[in-house]
Every structure is written in C-alpha cells, then in structure tokens.
Design goal:
The complex is a heterodimer of chains A (271) and B (305).
Chain A lengths: L2 H15 L2 H24 L8 H4 L5 H11 L3 H20 L1 H7 L4 H34 L5 E2 L5 E2 L1 H30 L5 H20 L4 H4 L20 H27 L6
Antiparallel strand pairs in A: 1-2
Chain B lengths: L2 E12 L2 E7 L2 E3 L3 E5 L6 H8 L7 E6 L4 H4 L3 E4 L11 H11 L8 H11 L15 H12 L6 E5 L7 H16 L3 E6 L2 H7 L2 E6 L2 E7 H6 L3 E7 L2 H10 L3 E6 L2 E5 L5 H10 L4 E8 L2 H9 L8
Parallel strand pairs in B: 4-8, 4-9, 6-7, 7-8
Antiparallel strand pairs in B: 1-2, 1-3, 1-5, 9-10, 11-13, 11-14, 12-13
Classes of the chains: A mainly alpha (271), B alpha/beta (305).
The site of adenosine-5'-diphosphate has 11 residues of chain B, from strand 2 and helix 1.
Chain lengths: 271, 305
C-alpha cells in the first residue's frame, strides 16, 4: 500500500466506523457477553463443568467464549452483511460511486480498499466481543487459572493468548461473509437488498449444515467450521479441523473477491 | 487545433436502444463546447462513456490526447447532478473525494478544499451537513468537487438543472470565469439560450446522433435570410411571393414569411406593391438559432432560463 492508498483506506475506515448505525451495532454486540455474564451471575447455580457456559463461573474468560458461541451463527454475520452489503451498493445508491470512479479512484483499487475496510470491520467486531467478555468476566467472576475444555489447567495468560487465537479464527471465518457481501454489493444498487441477500446466504449455509441428508456437502459449506475454535481451548490444541476451517474460509474469500473483481471491473456505472 | 476530446464512431447500446449512436466528437482545446440536445438524446450517456463509467459498445475516444484513466486527474466532472454523502459536511465530502485521488497531495488537501468551496461561494456552509443544502448549494458543491485541483478540462452535465434564476446566473458566471482562465469546458445542456450565452462551439445531439458540430459563429453564418410581410391580405401576399419565386412561404394571421433566397428585397417590395397588396410592414430577418435547431433535430428546445 502506498501513502495515497493508506489515506484512502483511512477515509474508508472513517466512513464505516463513524456511521451511527454501525456504532449502534457495535454497542449491541458489546452488550451480549455482558448480559450473558449478568444472567449467569444472577442464576446463581453452576452449569456442568467442561462446557463453555459451565466454565464461566470458574473463570470469567469463558464469558468471551460464550459471546462468540452465541453471536457467530447470526448476529455477527448480520453485522458483517450490513457493512459488506453497503460497500459498493451504498455508494451506487447515493450516486457517489460515479464521482469516486471519475476521480479516478480506480475500480480494482476501490474494491481492494473496500475489502480491506470490511476485514478491519470483522476484526473490530471480534475484538469487541472478546474485550467485552473479558472485562465482564473480570468484574463478575474469578480470573486466575482456568480449566480447558479437555480438563487441563492453564494460566490466565495462556487463556488470554488462546482467546486471541479464537478472535483471529472467528475473524477469518466471518471474512467469508464479508467477501460474499462485497460480491453481492457489486450486483445491485440497493444496499438493503445486498445486506439481506448476504445474510440469507449465510443462513442457507447453516440450514444446509443442519440437514443430515446433506452430509456430503457439509464440509464445503462456508459456515461448517465457524465454531471449530473450540479446539483452541483443548490441550494439546487440535489443529487439523481449525486448519481445514481456515482453508475453506480462504477458498471462499478468494472465490468471491475474484468474482467481485470480475464483475465490478466491467460493470457499467449508470447510477 | 488540439482536441481536448475526440471520439470516433462512439456508440453505446442499452439493449436494443442506441443511446449514443456513432458520434465523432471534436472538442477544441480551450473552447467552451455546448453539448446541446433535448432530454434523452444521449448527452449524459456520452459523458459517462468519456469518463470511463460506462463502456462503449463500439468506437473509441481520446481525452486530452490520452486514455481516460490517465486524463482523469486533469478532468473535473459533474455527471447527472451532484451526489454526496448526506450526513457528511461539505468539507468532509470534498476531503473524502480528495482522499480517493491517488495523485492528490494530502498535505494541501484542506487548503484546496477551502479554496474550492470559496470559489463557489460555499465557505459559510462548509461545515453544514450536505442534506441541509439547498439544490443550488448542492450543485455548487458538485462544481467545487470538480475544482479540487487545477484542471485542464471540465465536463459539466446540465450544471444549471433545477436552479432558480439567481442560482442559474451564479453558475453561468462561474463557468464563464473558469473558461476565461483557459480551461476547456464541455457543457451539456438542453437549453439553447444557455449554450448561446456561454459557448464558442456547439455539438447538437438528437436521438443519440451528433447532427451538427462546429463553431457557433459558423452556424450563425449559415442562417438563411427570410422576408416578413405584415399585411391584412395574407392570401394575396402569398400569391405574389410565390410568383416572384420565393420558397417556403408561410401565411399566418396578419403576416406572411418566405425564404429570401437569391432574390433582392427591393424587387420583392416592388412586386408586392404592383400586385396590390397593402404592405403594413416589411423586414428581412434571419432565422433564429432556435429555428435552426428545430430544423436539425426535428424537436423544439426549451428556450426558457
Ligand atoms: N442504464 C440505462 N439503461 C437503459 N437505457 C438507458 C440507460 N441510461 C440511459 N438510457 C436511455 O438512453 C437514452 C439517452 O439517455 P441520456 O444519456 O440520459 O440522455 P440525456 O442526458 O441527453 O437526457 C434515453 O433514451 C435513456 O432512456
Ligand atoms: Mg442527462
């Protein structure tokens, strides 16, 4: 990235992160691990150990994992769909796309900057879940050594490093939604339609994943490995399925960004 | 003369419609070129093709002697009305556009935005959100965006569309001032009066085709003289005019018109008097530009504004 590209990227981040709707979504996201912690605290009795929700009362760090567990299927993809679906379609619907291209921002360059901003948004969402869970956990629950899902006890610092890996894995997982959203966004001038279509695709993936008769294709679905980060909280870490999950994510990201590039590169901008 | 814009056989088809149909533009550098045509004649589509927003079905074009992508940093454009982010201020919107320009100098961005806003008289409204801008302010912000950097060519698509008379005057005098600084201006308009007032050259579009192109002065020179006879005997006057060989005779209540052609006006008057036509008034006039354009396009132009 050149200096000029960094400047454009900075401007794009400003568009995403200063937007009130997006900030509101981040606040809602931050509330979820907090509300889980309060609910667990208030219910007073322990869930069985060896599970993520059961671990919260032993160690607050599990509140962050519980946040990832409940948010990854729907709300997180919704948040990514909103920003990714808006990326190109939003500029098209407001007419600003024609002026960006006449600057000239460069079609490939604009797409690359938009995608970089989407990836940053994915990372920010995962970070907000992790931080909110971590802080809520520190306030309401013990924070010393923690028992992994496989039963071994590790230090809090070790747990935080694993949480960081989970955060990165979740980011990589939902970047697939971002890439799909970017592509859909080049297909329409209606941002809401792009958002809805993107979210619908992630839901279709999860529905298909839940149908046993479709077992043959499960491993190819974008959402199939999304919760595989639980392997990172075992000892030793089971890397094989996490690795497969990352490869599938990479495949989808490459496929849909290439489609978006092919589509956008030759598209008539008539909006 | 060097061409600021040149195209050959430029064509854009939308489905079965030839929105732009094989046009050969030649816009001289330094000119103010009026791209005139009724609504739907293909002006905006042409501008989109020239700016690289839409891909031509066939034909080629050159901007400032080079490809579109290379020329664009030296081109300021207003296409089909202004478009900005409603919740950003005028300043923030211009900074956003400037940030997208990989050849712009970030360190001078604020100063350039400030002077562009000043140029169009928006300094006082610079911090207001775009959504609070009036139509005239929006149009001027669009022009400010085209002026963010020194330009060699301005492509302005109907820059006075929707403005009140005051706003129209302001925008026109701004364009005249810019043209005075040596910038080539390519101005699309459906208003003949606007083109007459501002332009040195003109291209006339009709249903996707460029039906006439050249210096406005050349078009005026082509204007045919005609005679106008005021009389209470239009039928008799018509007979006389036809008998002395004038073509295109049109009789209306109270007057008769005919193309003068090669005839001498004094002979026509003499013939009328001999024929017993009571002449109340006689004049040799030239066809208005309006009539010439109607003849070229088969359609009338909006002459208001
Ligand atoms: N995206 C499009 N799809 C189909 N037809 C279009 C599109 N854009 C413009 N047209 C048609 O092309 C013709 C020329 O339109 P336009 O260039 O906007 O004319 P003008 O700017 O002179 O009013 C019109 O008939 C219009 O309906
Ligand atoms: Mg138009």
């Amino acid at each position: 990235m050149s200096r000029a590209d960094l400047r454009f990227f900075g401007s794009e981040l400003g568009m995403v992160f200063r937007r009130r709707r997006n900030l509101a979504l981040l606040v809602i996201l931050a509330c979820v691990p907090l509300l889980i912690s309060i609910a667990v605290k208030a219910s007073g009795h322990d869930a069985p150990g060896g599970s993520i929700f059961g671990g919260i009362t032993d160690n607050g760090l599990f509140a962050a994992l519980a946040g990832f567990l409940v948010l990854t299927p729907l709300f997180l993809p919704l948040m990514i769909s909103v920003v990714a679906g808006d990326s190109i379609a939003g500029e098209a619907s407001s007419g600003t796309l024609r002026y960006l291209l006449a600057i000239p921002a460069g079609r490939s360059r604009l797409l690359a900057i938009k995608f970089a901003a989407i990836v940053t948004w994915c990372l920010a969402c995962a970070l907000v879940i992790a931080l909110s869970g971590l802080l809520a956990g520190l306030v309401f629950f013990p924070s010393g050594e923690l028992t992994l899902l496989s039963g071994r006890v590790v230090s809090y610092g070790d747990g935080v490093v694993r949480l960081l890996l989970v955060l990165l894995y979740v980011t990589a997982s939902v970047v697939t939604v971002g890439a799909i959203g970017l592509f859909v966004s080049t297909m329409t001038e209606a941002p809401i339609a792009a958002m809805a279509a993107t979210l619908t695709l992630t839901i279709v993936s999860q529905v298909a994943d839940a149908v046993p008769q479709l077992g043959r294709i499960h491993g190819w679905l974008p959402s199939h490995y999304w919760l595989q980060w639980v392997d990172l909280f075992r000892d030793p870490i089971i890397t094989s399925r996490v690795g497969t999950g990352l490869l599938v994510a990479l495949g989808y990201v490459l496929f849909f960004t290439a489609l978006a590039w092919a589509r956008f590169g030759g598209k008539d901008i008539t909006a | 003369m060097v061409a600021a814009i040149a195209s050959e056989g430029l064509t854009k088809r939308f489905g079965s419609l030839n929105a732009v149909d094989g046009i050969d533009l030649a816009v001289p550098a330094g000119s103010v070129y009026g791209f005139l045509g009724p609504n739907g004649s293909g002006k905006t589509t042409t501008i989109r093709v020239l700016l690289g927003l839409v891909f031509a079905t066939s034909g080629s074009h050159v901007l400032l002697g080079t490809s579109t992508q290379r020329a664009l940093p030296k081109v300021g454009a207003l296409v089909e009305g202004p478009a900005f982010h409603p919740y950003l201020s005028g300043t923030a919107n211009l900074l956003r556009l400037d940030a997208a320009d990989r050849t712009a100098d970030a360190s001078t961005a604020r100063a350039r935005v400030g002077s562009a806003l000043e140029r169009v008289g928006l300094t006082a409204a610079a911090g207001k959100r775009y959504r609070a801008y009036s139509l005239g302010m929006r149009q001027r912000l669009g022009i400010a965006a085209a002026l963010l950097r020194p330009r060699e060519l301005l492509m302005l698509d109907e820059p006075t569309n929707g403005l009140d008379p005051q706003g129209t005057r302001e925008v026109r005098s701004l364009i005249a001032a810019l043209a005075g600084e040596g910038v080539t201006v390519f101005l699309s308009s459906h208003l003949l009066s606007e083109v007459e007032q501002l332009c040195s050259d003109v291209g006339v579009m009709s249903a996707g085709r460029l039906v006439w192109q050249g210096a406005l002065a050349d078009l005026r020179a082509q204007q045919e003289p005609y005679v106008r006879v005021e009389t209470v005997q239009p039928a008799e006057a018509r007979q006389v005019l036809e008998s002395v060989g004038l073509a295109g005779v049109e009789a209306a209540d109270g007057h008769v018109r005919a193309r003068l052609g090669e005839a001498r006006p004094e002979d026509v008057v003499a013939a009328l008097v001999r024929g017993g036509v009571g002449v109340r008034g006689f004049a040799v006039e030239r066809a208005s530009l309006e009539e010439q354009f109607v003849a070229l396009t088969g359609e009338g132009f909006d002459v208001s504004g």
